[in-house]
Amino acid sequence: MLKKNEKGFTLAESLLSLMIMAMLAAFILPFMVQMTSQSKALWDKQRGMRILYEEGEKRWNERRDFHVVYNEAGEMYDISWETTKAAACLEVSQQEICIKEQ
Question: Membrane-spanning regions, if any (predicted)?
Answer without folding.
Answer: 15-33
